[in-house]
Write a structure and sequence with these properties.
Elements lengths: L4 H4 L8 E7 L4 H12 L5 E8 L5 H8 L4 E3 L7 H14 L4 E4 L8 H6 L4 E5 L11 H8 L3 E8 L9 E8 L6 H25 L2 E4 L2 E4 L2
Parallel strand pairs: 1-2, 1-4, 2-3, 4-5
Antiparallel strand pairs: 5-6, 6-7, 8-9
Helix pairs in contact: 2-7, 6-7
The protein binds glycinamide ribonucleotide.
Glycinamide ribonucleotide binds next to helix 2, strand 5 and helix 7.
């Protein structure tokens, strides 16, 4: 007897992508991502785990208050390889599809990059390749830039370096100090990161050399 159940099967909704958020501090970008998922601006996604490398990271508390699974692996005093092995195992245990660094102030080991190829994103508060590293907003302000901004990029072994997905420019106003500039950049970060995640999860792009090219 033959059955035709396959032909009449209803289309299945796509399985939601499972995000792993890594942070070291405040967690405002994490909260912007969580809000964007709740609003449907990142379709078919859920946060599988929020992981910190600093015990008292406020972002970890914020995640607990939202009822999300959390983990903390303190990195101080451990080698990068040891620490990353724990983080990778945790991300795998939570079946993470896409890793989002959200103020995670650590360089990833080659083993970490290899474990999630083209599946790790980062946000940085400058128009890369200008001002990688710490206090990028102050670096741009002190340099006298008239244009600053933020960048969302794929992560590779180098600091704030991988293929750029999107950038948002922020003018430096004559009335600015480094703090007001950082605040306005942060507002753009909170828009840019969810948008970049949605773009990557859509799969409608290709990477050619260092260029991220959307596929209509
Ligand atoms: C953000 O400004 C993010 O761009 C930056 O850390 C801050 C974290 O804030 N990341 C880097 O500088 C990475 N090199 P948050 O904890 O409120 O999201």
């Amino acid at each position: 007897m033959t059955t035709h159940s396959q032909a009449h099967a209803l289309p299945q909704p796509p399985t939601p992508a499972r995000l792993g958020i890594l942070l070291s501090g405040r967690g405002s970008n994490f909260l912007a991502i969580a809000q964007a998922i709740a609003d449907g601006r990142i379709p078919a996604a859920s946060i599988a785990i929020v992981l910190a490398n600093v015990e008292d990271a406020p972002g970890l508390d914020a995640a607990r208050r939202l009822g999300l699974p959390t983990a903390c692996f303190v990195s101080r005093g451990r080698t990068r390889a040891q620490h990353d092995a724990d983080v990778i195992a945790c991300l795998r245990q939570h079946q993470v599809d896409l890793v989002c660094l959200a103020g995670y102030m650590r360089l990833l080991s080659p083993a970490f990059i290899a474990a999630f190829p083209q599946r790790i994103l980062n946000i940085h508060p400058s128009l890369l390749p200008a001002f990688p590293g710490l206090d990028a907003q102050t670096q741009a302000f002190d340099y006298g830039c008239t244009l600053a901004g933020c960048t969302v990029h794929f992560v590779d072994e180098h600091l704030d370096h991988g293929v750029i997905i999107l950038q948002r420019a922020v003018p430096v106003l004559p009335t600015d100090d480094a703090h007001t500039l950082a605040q306005r950049i942060l507002e753009q970060e909170h828009q840019a990161y969810p948008e970049a995640i949605a773009r990557v999860l859509s799969g409608h792009y290709q990477i050619t050399g260092r260029r991220y090219l959307p596929i209509p």
